[in-house]
Design a protein that fits this description.
Elements: E1 7-9, H1 12-19, E2 28-39, E3 46-57, E4 61-66, H2 72-79, E5 87-92, E6 95-96, H3 102-109, E7 112-115, H4 127-136, H5 143-155, H6 171-183, E8 189-193, H7 201-218, E9 221-225, H8 229-232, E10 237-242, E11 245-251, H9 252-263, H10 266-269, H11 273-282, E12 284-288, E13 293-295, E14 303-309, E15 312-315, E16 327-329, E17 334-335, H12 337-342, E18 349-352, E19 356-362, H13 363-372, H14 374-386
Helix pairs in contact: 4-5, 4-6, 6-7, 9-11
The protein binds adenosine-5'-triphosphate and magnesium ion.
């Protein structure tokens, strides 16, 4: 990347993958490119996915979040070969799913462990037999594999429930049987949709440990749709969907780094850990060389900025005399809030006087953050007023 050109890192497609520290080139277990999807069942047809790109490497554990209806399950089912790819391409371990016939699709699906919201256990089979079934589909059954199944069930605190049928198990216990069933064949890829939603803290910890261990031992890739903050720390990446698009794809190191940077400022201190994580996932990183006009007076307000490093000047300010010295801002200062708060065009220009690194937040996310914290709004209004 040359030094004299501005960069903005936001989504997977715009280059956060180039920031990911992945070491040697690892095999791509999942490759999604330009994937869109429309449901034609309804009237009128609705497009719910728009041009998504996503790579998952061997050994990666990624979590995916996003509001209800943002398209997470739809994308997951496309990746899992449970839904036909209409537009774009999905490959699993280099096998293109688009256009595969039924038999070939079944083969691909066998490489994937699914943990879905409806766990579809067989009612007439015990916990042990349900897992065993999945295993028999793939391997020869031996005493060792029987031991393996029981061992996994015990790991998730189901040792006392091996002979129970689904109707005799709690929702959380059924969920754990489904998890064991998904991992028992050591798949290349695990796709999970809210796997820990009905589990208490201890059970959630056990599931996370099991997934992490499996990833380390077998090198599988894991994609988990979740709103569960308890999983975030175990993940390598946090992917966020909004309105059918992947809008951010950060590695966890970046999330923690940005969080601890923003926490230094009073402005962000009041947010809970979960709120902060949501804000940070929406943050884009920008780097601009000296002389870049970051904000131009008269333009509509679209973003809010926090300076990570470097200096900018606020200049050409509405109603201020030409001989007044421009305001200088440096690391930790923020700007761009006035137009967003007043919903009026930019009232000044902001120019980088040296190379600057910035974190920026889009208007929508800025508004959402305002709604979540009174202090955030108060503090911004105070600063905006002082700058008038
Ligand atoms: N079979 C279907 N027919 C028509 N529309 C559908 C169908 N399945 C999902 N949708 C629509 O597609 C959009 C995305 O749904 P999806 O289930 O992928 O969302 P989600 O992000 O998983 O939400 P949640 O967090 O509530 O599970 C929604 O607006 C939903 O109404
Ligand atoms: Mg869903």
């Amino acid at each position: 990347m040359s030094n004299n050109e501005s960069i903005i890192v936001r989504s997977a497609s715009s280059g956060s993958s180039s920031q990911r520290v992945t070491g040697e080139a690892k095999e791509k277990v999942v490759r999604v490119s330009n994937v869109s999807h429309t449901f034609y069942e309804g009237d009128p047809p609705t497009q719910v996915l728009f041009d998504n790109d996503l790579d998952l490497l061997r050994g990666e554990l990624a979590i995916m979040t996003g509001r209800s209806g943002s398209g997470k399950t739809t994308l997951l089912t496309l990746i899992g070969g449970l839904r036909r790819v209409q537009e774009g391409s999905v490959t699993i371990c280099d096998k293109e799913l688009r256009g595969l016939d039924k038999d070939e699709m079944v083969k691909v699906r066998r490489r994937i462990g699914f943990i879905f919201q409806q766990h579809n256990l067989f009612d007439s089979l015990t916990a042990r037999e349900n897992v065993f079934m999945a295993m028999q589909l793939k391997r020869e059954v031996s005493p060792a594999s029987r031991e393996h199944v029981d061992g996994l069930l015990r790991r998730l605190a189901l040792g006392q429930r091996l002979e129970f049928r689904p109707a005799e198990l709690s929702g959380g216990q059924r969920q754990r049987v489904a998890i064991v069933r998904a991992v028992v064949n050591e798949p290349d890829l695990i796709l999970a949709d809210e796997p820990t939603a009905s589990l208490d803290d201890a059970a959630t910890r056990d599931v996370i440990e099991l997934l992490k261990e499996l990833r380390e031992r077998t090198g599988c890739a894991i994609l988990v749709v979740t709103h569960d903050d308890r999983i975030l720390h175990a993940a390598d990446r946090a992917i966020r969907m909004k309105g059918g698009r992947i809008v951010s794809d950060l590695n966890t190191r970046q999330v923690l780094e940005i969080t601890s940077f923003l926490r230094n400022y009073k402005l962000f201190r009041e947010f809970s850990a979960a709120q902060m994580t949501n804000i940070v996932r929406e943050v884009a990183y920008e780097r601009h060389p000296a002389g870049t006009v970051i904000i131009r007076r008269g333009d509509p307000g679209d973003k809010f900025y926090v300076i990570k490093s470097g200096q900018v000047i606020v200049t050409d300010k509405e109603g201020s005399s030409a001989d007044r010295a421009p305001i200088q801002l440096g690391p930790g200062d923020y700007f761009g809030e006035v137009a967003l708060l007043t919903k009026k065009p930019r009232n000044a220009s902001v120019v980088a006087t040296e190379q600057v690194e910035l974190y920026s937040l889009d208007k929508d996310e800025f508004d959402a953050a305002l709604g979540r914290s009174e202090t955030f709004e108060e503090e911004l209004r105070r600063v905006a007023y002082e700058r008038q």
